[in-house]
Specification:
This protein is an alpha+beta fold and 272 residues long. It contains 8 helices and 12 strands. The structure holds zinc ion (ZN) (2 copies).
Length: 272
């Protein structure tokens, strides 16, 4: 039998998500930082096929639809689906800094979270977080936690949608662009920068984790490097953390990841 104060503490934590003695922000940062590059690559591959919501304004012919009763996410161009797959609500964040897991949100039907719920609850690293109904955290930490969960449970990424009240809903997505095809990331090894499948580009390198780097993107990266004459003055360039070799060196920043000049050159040789 638990002593009463401990039991109260536990009940308070469970029911209301009081953060009691746990520093949730540090815990999330620690988990995220240990896998930051892997998560960034996972997210980059997802965003290579579906735009961030904020970018939609610049692409009026693109749109998306979510039906949690199926549950399906569809990305459309001119009204026709071009990328689709199952989605699951990982969790949502409200402007009062409250995080609620998808399965604790009464407005979501079970089909909208049941697949990812069991996978997240099986993760030992966040056991103390996933048993709580509510957690208090910053929006930045909510993005990190959701992307970490998506990566750890084998989903293609965490897709943030903004809600009308200023909050964010994080959807785990698995995607494909091929009819009657598996939605598992391993069966969809498109280029993690442009989203083209191996059959759609002249050449592609397998960079691991079911991600490709295509010859078109390597060419474009080389052009950017030449235009900004990065090749000639590496020392003076600002440093990036390369998502391939993980060195902190001069390189090119893409929207979600960065690649160093040596890796671009190496990829170019490998593609010859
Ligand atoms: Zn590419
Ligand atoms: Zn590198």
């Amino acid at each position: 039998m638990l002593p009463i104060p401990t039991l109260n503490l536990f009940l308070n934590s469970y029911l209301w998500g009081y953060n009691t003695d746990m520093d949730i922000g540090s815990k999330i940062s620690e988990l995220f930082q240990a896998q930051e590059i892997d998560i960034a690559r996972n997210q980059s591959k997802m965003f290579a096929r579906v735009l961030p919501v904020a970018d939609l304004a610049d692409y009026p012919n693109e749109s998306y639809e979510v039906d949690l009763s199926q549950p399906i996410f569809e990305w459309k161009i001119d009204g026709s689906p071009v990328t689709w797959g199952p989605c699951q609500v990982i969790g949502s964040w409200a402007p009062d800094s409250t995080w609620i897991w998808g399965w604790e949100n009464k407005s979501i039907s079970a089909s909208g979270y049941e697949k990812i719920k069991s996978a997240i609850q099986a993760l030992d690293e966040i056991n103390e977080l996933s048993i709580m109904r509510k957690l208090s955290m910053s929006n930045d930490d909510a993005h990190k936690l959701a992307a970490w969960c998506a990566w750890k449970t084998g989903w293609q990424g965490s897709y943030p949608r903004h809600t009308e009240n200023g909050g964010t809903v994080f959807l785990g997505l698995k995607l494909t662009a091929m009819p009657h095809h598996s939605v598992e990331p391993k069966d969809n090894p498109w280029c993690f920068l442009c989203g083209l499948y191996p059959s759609q580009v002249p050449k592609i390198i397998d960079i691991g984790n079911a991600q490709g780097l295509c010859s078109k993107c390597v060419e474009r990266a080389q052009e950017v490097a030449k235009v900004s004459s990065l090749m000639d003055r590496r020392e003076s360039q600002s440093q990036i953390t390369c998502c391939l070799c993980r060195d902190k060196v001069a390189g090119i920043a893409f929207p979600h990841i960065s690649i160093c000049l040596s890796c671009i050159e190496y990829a170019n040789k490998a593609l010859q």
